[in-house]
Design a protein that fits this description.
alpha+beta, 18 strands, Diaminopimelate Epimerase, Chain A, domain 1, 7 helices, 289 residues, 2 domains, 18-stranded mixed sheet, single chain
Length: 289
């Protein structure tokens, strides 16, 4: 029996087509996880999001890379919110909850921006071996910002502060070696490099993210990395409480010609972290299988 689904390709964290990070989005009711994985592989973008019915929240939301289902994906969630808006299922001032592998996530739309709640992760100074990591990333201690330790989050992302934008641009990892490190050290699966130098004066930091262990050598714009980056900066005493409640903007993707901008803010009374951004549809299609 032939199946047909409506599927979109949406660029998130940008208003311009061919920028930001692309995600596939479709409704997933009636699809098995095996089929969802095949669809994600066929789409061949960083993640494809599947929306389906849920008894725990307004909708269930799953994210698949071309190779695996992942716990959390920021840009594909922003894309999913845009998909729902285009289907008149959310509008400005509206809110929605998603049942995900990372728990129930609150999302909303305010002032034509899509907002997604990001889980709060515990973190600590990374005290493990660095020689192999530096070698695989193609950096040395000289490239690091002074007196800023590497930070490891419980979600297995390692944050490393690079001292300049130019040095961050020149980072050229050995992805096979990064995979080996992640296979050997189960506490590290992604490498988030950032600098406090920015391309645009009003922005706060610029980041790059390498996750070959998850099938993504370098992700253009990563909401699930830039959101927690705000908390990393707080942990390192590099932002104030007042700054955190505003929308600090982080840059990513410019060195891949996929420039994107991720807004971040923390609501102290609710103890909730949010990312926010724009999105634009670039493809509306039908998949037959």
């Amino acid at each position: 029996m032939e199946n047909k689904i409506e599927i979109y390709q949406i660029d998130a964290f940008t208003k311009k087509p061919f920028c930001g990070n692309s995600a596939g989005v479709t409704f997933g009711d009636g699809l098995t996880d095996k089929i969802k994985q095949k669809i994600a592989k066929e789409m061949n973008v960083a993640e494809t999001a599947f929306l389906s019915k849920s008894e725990k929240a307004d909708l269930r939301l799953q994210w698949f890379t071309p190779t695996v289902e992942v716990e959390l994906c920021g840009h594909a969630t922003i894309a999913a919110l845009h998909f729902l808006k285009e289907h008149s299922l959310i509008k400005n001032g509206g809110a929605i909850t998603f049942d995900t592998r990372s728990g129930i996530l609150k999302c909303k739309m305010e002032n034509d921006k899509y907002l997604m709640q990001i889980p709060l992760y515990s973190m600590q100074n990374y005290e493990g071996e660095t020689k192999e990591i530096f070698l695989a990333l193609g950096i040395t201690k000289v490239n690091l910002a002074e007196n800023i330790p590497m930070i490891l989050l419980e979600n297995t992302n390692l944050y490393i502060c690079i001292k300049s934008l130019e040095e961050l641009k020149n980072v050229s990892p050995n992805f096979k070696e990064l995979v080996k490190i992640s296979e050997q050290n189960k506490k590290i699966s992604g490498f988030a490099l950032f600098t406090l130098q920015t391309i645009e004066a009003n922005n706060f930091a610029h980041s790059r993210y390498f996750a070959p262990f998850w099938g993504i050598d370098e992700d253009p714009v990563t909401g699930s990395v830039n959101g927690p980056l705000l908390m990393v900066l707080k942990y390192l005493n590099l932002v104030t409480d007042e700054q955190m409640t505003k929308s600090l903007v982080f840059e990513q993707g410019d060195f891949m010609e996929r420039s994107g901008r991720v807004g971040t803010k923390f609501l102290p009374q609710e103890n909730e972290l949010y990312i926010l951004g724009d999105a634009v549809t670039v493809i509306k299609g039908e998949m037959t299988f």
